[in-house]
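Hey, quick one: can you model this chain's 3D structure?
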Amino acid sequence: MSAPSQRGPRLRELGLRIGRFEAGSSNAITDVTGVTVGHVTIWRDEPEPPEGRGVARTGVTAILPAPAETLHAEPVPAGTAVLNGAGELTGSMVIAEWGRIETPVYLTSTHAVGRVYDGAISVAVASDPNVGTENFVIPVVGECDDSWLSEGRLVQVEAEDAGRAVAAATGGRVAEGALGAGAGMMTKGYKAGIGTSSRLVPSLGGAVGVVVLSNFYPPPGLVMDGVPVGELLGEPPAGRRSKAGSCIAVVAVDAPLSGHQLERVARRAGLGLARCGSVAHHGSGEIFVAFAPPGRRPRGEAPVATVPNYDLNDVFEAVVDATEEAVLNALWAAPEVVGREGRVGPALPHDDVLEILGAHGRLGR
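Sure thing. Here's the predicted structure for all 365 residues.
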C-alpha cells in the first residue's frame, strides 16, 4: 500500500472564509518570506514485530525559518508557549532563555524524537563547520503520538529522514493531510495530520502563517467556523475515541518581533484550537513555537526596530484565524487511512460537511 494523496480543493477554495483578513497566495506558512516546508513520509506494511517492522504510518516534517546554512550563524527571533504540556518540544528552554531559534523546526511521532534530534544535529553539522567544533546546537523537535495507526513498538523513522525533510523543503503551496509527520495523526475521530494557513496583515505589510500537526480528540465534537459540525455529523464511523491527543503549532510572522513578543504570539494558537473544539485535555500536548524570519531584510543587514506592542493585535487575530483554518485544512485534505491491526482513520465526509456549512451560511461569504 502506498501513501494516499490529498483530497480535492481546499475549504477556502470552496467558499469558507474564516476571519476578516485575506489569505496569502499559497494560504500557507510559506507566504511568510523565506519560510520553506518539507515532508518525508514513512509508509510500509510488514508483519508485526518481531517478524517485521509492522505497519508504519508516520514521518517527518521540517519547517525552515531560513536556509539551514544560515540559521546557526544568524538565528532568528523566536518564542514558545504551552497550553497543556503532555508532550515535547526540544529546544524550548533555549528559545525561552535566548529568544531565538537556530535550527529548523522538526515535527515527528513521539517515539521518533530522539532519532530526528540526531538527524537534526547531522543537518546542523553539515550546514555550518562551527557546529560541534566552536559551538553547539540544540535542535527543535516537536511530536504527537501516532501509535494508534502506526506501529509504535519500533521506531519507524531513521535519523537520515530529518535531513531528507530539510532537503525536500520548498516554498509555495504546502502538501497537507496524511503525509510527513501527519501520516498517522487523527483529529476529532477523523484522519488529519499536517495543515497550514496564512493571513495577510495590512498593518504589518506582511503575512502571518501557521503549520499544525493536528492530533487531538473528542469530546467535545469538531467545530468549523462556529458550526458544531461534529455534533451534526454524529459519531465518526470508526476511529480513535481517546480523550487525549496533541497539537503542535508553528507560527511565522513576517515582521521584526522580539522573543518576548513571539512568545505572546505563539500563545494565541491555543485560541485557534479552542475554536475547533479543543479543550486541551489532561493527557494532551498543545505546544506552540513562533518565529520571525529575516524576511525581506537582506542577510547581514542590521534589524529594524521591533513592532510596538500595541500594534500586535492584528497579528494575534491573524494567528487565531490561521490556526483554526490550518486544523480544518488538515482534516479536509486527509483521506481515509487504514493502519495497524486494520484500524481505520476515516476521512471527514466532504459532501455532508459542505451541506452543513452551506445550511449555516458559512460558504461564499
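One thing worth noting: The longest helix spans residues 313-333.
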